[in-house]
Structures
1.
Amino acid sequence: MKAQLALGCSILLALPGCSEPKTSLDAIQSDPEAGFTRPAQPANAMLPHSDDILELRVPPNPGRNAYFGDLHVHTGYSFDAYVFGTTSTPRDAYRYARGEALEHPSGYRVQLRQPLDFYAVTDHAMFLGLVKEAADTRSAFSRYEVAQPLHDINAPDNMNEWSLADRGRAFAAFLPATLAGLRDGSIDPRLAEAITRSAWLDTIEAADEAYVPGRFTTFAGFEYTSSTDDMGNLHRNVIFHDTRRLPAVPFSRFHSQNPEGLWDWMDGLRARGIESLAIPHNSNGSNGQMFKLVDWAGDPMDDDYSIQRLRNEPLVEITQVKGTSDTHPLLSKNDEWANFEIAPYRVATKLYSEPAGGYVRDALLRGLDLSAGGVLNPYQFGVIGSSDTHNGADSLDEETFFSKAGMLDGTPELRGSVPASFIAGNLMKILEPGMVKTVDGRDYLASSSFEYWSASGLAGVWAEENTRESIYAAFRRRETFATSGPRMQVRFFAGYEFTPSILVDRDIVSAAYAGGVSMGSDLQGVAGRVPGFLVWALADPEGAPLQRVQVIKGFVANGEHRERIYDVACSDGLTADPATGLCPDNGAAVDLADCSISAGVGASELQALWHDPDFDPEQEAFYYLRVLQNPTCRWSTWDAIRAGVRPRSDLPATIQERAWSSPVWYRPPPAGEEQPTTAAPAGVG
């Protein structure tokens, strides 16, 4: 070996330029004539050092990671976004989701506190791109009479609150006039479709440009915007698996008012190799029509109906800016936390919305009803949250909430969280008395229901990696969760092999998957066995600590809907009261002078292995988690504090942000099997 090294050195020294240098390397680098420039370089640096970073794709995690995103985002292509000042494009929206700042229509900059993992622009398929085209006086569409009130509506000198009245009139007139024109032929439907095709293609291309597998995932999507004749909301967002082959025109209410028509269209695409799913949202504003017990025609549901709905709608949006659709105080009278961000009206109206048939927990119970009657359960879905922003930018933090509708609700005064100015309040009382509400002797603008809106929500998934394939697969298997904005993580498993030792198992996730089923799944009853439920929640590191984790159980007994709430993990070393099943109050409080919260109270993580003390092996049931943070200020309180006024007494001063898991459905063992004992294993609560 020594001889080989000596020979190698001899050869190197024999090569030109390899003899011992007469001048040191440092001296050469110090000579400006030598071609080296080295300001701010180490004394012995021969070349400038690159600050570039290689961002390599993270390998898939078999235990799955939590990813957060938004599947409900509107840009200037949506008719009700552009008319109120939103000019952001799909590309702008994706840049915002990656962490860049975006200009709000009201003139200030907005930015996420941390980037999201996935995002989907879902502009309205109905009139896609038409209002934007109408405003462009260079376009052919702008020459129609219906377009004239929209000309240059977002010109720089028109981006002010004084333009809102004209914008409202233009918006109200455009929809019926354009529909009438398309029907009577005075508006060329081929031109309208060409505009929609162009906007849709641009939306798809923007999603592909922004997609970075392993780092940031985008989905092509759109909103199907239908309703009942009495303004009950039936909206869905359609999300495509990929962008290799897609329809040239998205499906809208113009093609079918009946959502079953949407499912037929999706099934037709699926037969051609184009996979998608639809996600209903704002069931709270459906006037009880989203989760009916009959089909569109009023006929009883059958298995064919259920199979088609399950195939096309594996998820629902449980929370967003226009309220939370978990449950309602009138439906869950014994649920202390049911009255959370309730938006009482049908969407885009001030008409009361019937709660029954409009909330997720009630739908899950209705599904059990149908199953008990021999019909396949059509309401076996997972949950997500999303924003429904119409700014291209979701607004998820209470402290910095800027709402969703462009200039229409872009200031605290316009969204009704601070009193109207003397001029605006008195002028509105004269022009539109019904648009002013007096609370505590002060006048507030009440042009819509903005004061009931929420800084919500987020979609969470458990997926092996941040790619379309992996995240979409999580949608399909319903291993999803929702939050009202904070980035809480939630996991929920059920099985028969869990023992208390799993809570200290370093490989708890692998053990959970091996010994049970994850949220979104069925758990088949096993004779002689009682299931255990593994519960885990992690607080948002930048949010308030956790207060408790609850299991929500639903079942049908003697033909009646029943639900029970169990606090299964309490913060601060507390334990649930055996009589009520609820955790004691942990004493967390909020100072309404500055919105500061109690320090040292609450948990960063909660976990438990729980067994249902009321388990009936013959009773079909669902179980899902609700995770509650310590109380924090609501956005309306933050607005009031910044303005130096008292918060409105008719709005909640504080809220408890929360997360929800998708359910696990317990199925009794087949008839004829020996029935299990109902005793939980020793030492397990």
Note: The two ends are 69 Å apart (CA to CA).
2.
Amino acid sequence: MKVLHIGEYVVGGVATYLNELVAYQRHIFDVYLLMSDYNSASDFDLESDRIFRYKYKRHPKHFFSAMRQIHQAIQRIQPDIIHVHSSFAGMLARGLFFITPRKASVFYCSHGWSFLMDTKPLHRKAYFMIEKILEFKTDFIINISKYELEQSVQLGMSPAKSRFVYSGLRDRKNDQRPEHSSPVIREDMEKTNVIQLLFVGRYDRQKGLDLLLDVFGKYPELQQLIRLYVIGDSVLEKNEWNFPENVVRLGWVNNAEIDHYYEQCDAIIMPSRWEGLPLVALEAMKNRKPVIASNRASLPELVSHGMNGYIFDLERPEELREILMNLDKMTLAAMGEVGHGIYKEKFSSDRMNEEFVSLYYEARDMGVTFHEVHPASRLEISKRNGE
């Protein structure tokens, strides 16, 4: 079976997600990857002759050219499965099929519905209408959380076509770091009585770093108890972020080294305004770290308050203050162990990939389950919906 994965700007979480898929599927299927030549990652666990790029930048004047290049790649590869990732790629790839025939089964994952974002109602309505039209040229709509599945179906997306598959990550603990990698262990991250929190993400409205910095500014007593490490940077060339003295900016960190930063902190903090299924939370659980998260979107689906982390109301900064004031290292360590158990049960890369293998065969109406392809597997596909 030939599988073609199509993305637009394949970077960050989408790149990580795609790498988990192609690294696994290459041993089962004939796998190809197609993405923009601009603002896309370069390091994938797939042979270079199976990775294709189309000339493109995100502007309407480039849309038709990108669609033509994608169509040419599909004609050349002749895939059985076309798996499209993110909303712009979804528009470019599926828009083709209103004017050209297709033989492949089409899977689409938005990696976070645009019509569920915290934005203007008119924008959300427009995003939904576009997705609803493109749904006609889609066989399976993949949601990455129960929240997204329930919300999208409630708004009117097809329940018959909709599925949900939790994202998954490999445990990279046994992977070797690059020979010339930069030092990972920082002196100011060594053991201390101060609670060390880690934020990972872009400096943008979605990720809510501004809200967290505002809390530190509003409650200066927290600065004596908490040290915040920030991995990431602004999405703009210039910004007016005000960082208190207890915040250490690390910039972007090599993906091969990021686990070591997770290991050295006490907890991960995610003050997001909206999320699909954030891989940062999964990375935290994989590394035995609890997550302190807002009550938005899918985050309460991942974090059980008092079990593997804490949930706070994003509209009530005093609630976050209360949580931060009462953190202690022993409790956080115990929560991290609980989170690791959840990761192994629900969010492993093997589990995610086994579910997709079964769905691919279902789409081709081949009547083959994953266990018939890999009978040695102990994971139960019947648990697909996290039940």
Note: The radius of gyration is 21 Å.
3.
Amino acid sequence: MKQFAKRVLALGVSSALSIGMAASVHAATYKVVDKGAVGELKYTYAQHQNHNGEMAISGAKSYNLPVQFDYLDEQNFQDIEEYANAYHERTHGLEDIEDYDAMVAGNPTANDLAWVVRWLQDTSRGAGSRSNELVYEYQRIIDFVAMTHLGKEGSQSEQFVIFDQVFEGTDQLTRSTVDIIAGITDSGVAYGSGTAPYLPMEPFTDSNGNIRNFWLREFGQRGFFSYDNGAQVLPVVPAETQYGGGLSAVIDVNENGSAVGFMSYKLNENTVEYIQDETGGCADPDILDDIPYEICVQNLQTNMYHMMAYKASLSPDGSVEVEQLGLLIEPHPDDERPHSSYATAVNNSGVAVGYASGWYDEEVTSPAVDQRSYGSYAVMYKDGEVFDFNQKNNRFLGRGVVISKANDINDKGIAVGYRYDDAVVKKLFYVDTTKPKEEMELITHPGFFTTSDTTAYAINESGLIVGDGEIESHNDSTSNPRRTAAFLYDSINGSFKNVNNLIGCDSPYTIIQARDINDENVISATAIIKVQRLDSKGQPMLDENGNPELEDVVRAVTLEPTDGEEESCEIEEDKVERQGASTSVFTVLSLFGLLALRRRIFN
């Protein structure tokens, strides 16, 4: 019997809460096709699948991560031991350090390897947290992997290396990159973005005579495309590359070869002034006595660039013809704040959508140098204009918040995404971009219930919209996140369904997000499934009685339509214990969501 984590809440947060067992009749209209476990990874996450069955997948939580123990010293190992001692009682599945000497020798147990990786990744309490230290003095482990599944009988998900490199003298990738393959066109063009790897610089001697090791990368996020499944990865170099290589991403490509995304087009002058400052900045000789100039610049990447949406024509020879799509607003000439725009999808007519910085007062025509600008809004890029669908902007949710965002547009001109309503709840929307401008309006849907955060990610030509929505109503927190379920919304007849009600009562999968839907109504989704638990080296874990331990993982799946038959299912309200692996899966999903794998800048 499928156990629903209080999925009764999807029906409303009222008398349903008191129901222990309820009857429901629904059609099992989809079958789940698991894209298979990837031997080197715990988690896989669905992106886009084309009409040929080729799927773009993201992954995380690699086994046997390539820690470079030679770059750790005695103080580091002592810090790792103290770190494990402080946190092991609150960390599910890990014990205190088991064999300190073996860890120092570079041959840790699986438990101890997990602690070393955690310490390197924890920049607030672990590596780089001591005074006078920088995080770039330590190996960077980021561990976001791109994969493809070619959809053929017997094929498996395979890793798609973008810009990562192997450590010198080894066959191990650094795993210090964020690799994202956002999709594959029907004609076989793969696209997305990746970051350069962090590699060790030559040892640096500071003003006190201490030898320090620093890790540097050539550039941050950079878009790419490939015509041969990654054999040749062709970069999309941004317009502005000074001071760190610039930033770019390819987020969508239509069947005519038009790509959209964003790229750095302008430097932040305030940051440049600091870099060039000889009295406290990166040009200060006293600063350069203690850290390399390149590391000083790398430490400022977050505020280095202004971004602009672009459309580009791609070519197999690697040439890229770029058209900048402009901004929603025209700032005062002396306003040096970063006002940006992003394109997230383009249809086969060349109409693009995305989001862009806007004024707090949408009626502004002559902005002041410090005009209020708190967030970004869903926009359309068409005929040389950036248009915000007549939204009212006077809503303050915090500086820099994306208040509304368009994620997709079909060939009929219907765009979908999300917007925050007056109660500061995220709601899916759709909008007809073929209407006259003055008639365009974001039409929202409440989702599973009124206070459920709901996001639409994709729409097909039949008007079917997919995404995810919260199915629990408690106050959300990092330690106790609201659980989500994938939805299928028919914008024509108004039907809104929990996808879990469409895959059969006895399915071992719980579908937590639907990322894409094609014109055959095949859905790309991410599911939770229970599997045998593996340690940090990828080996099975046993409990105290010698029995295999189990855990929940997220897995990329395809949902294929079936004729289906009506089934009578008993839905048991069973709140899964919120500890250990159960919570960690939703934490991972939250991480994927925060990274917004197809939509986010990685500085």
Note: The CA atoms of residues 225 and 234 lie 5 Å apart.
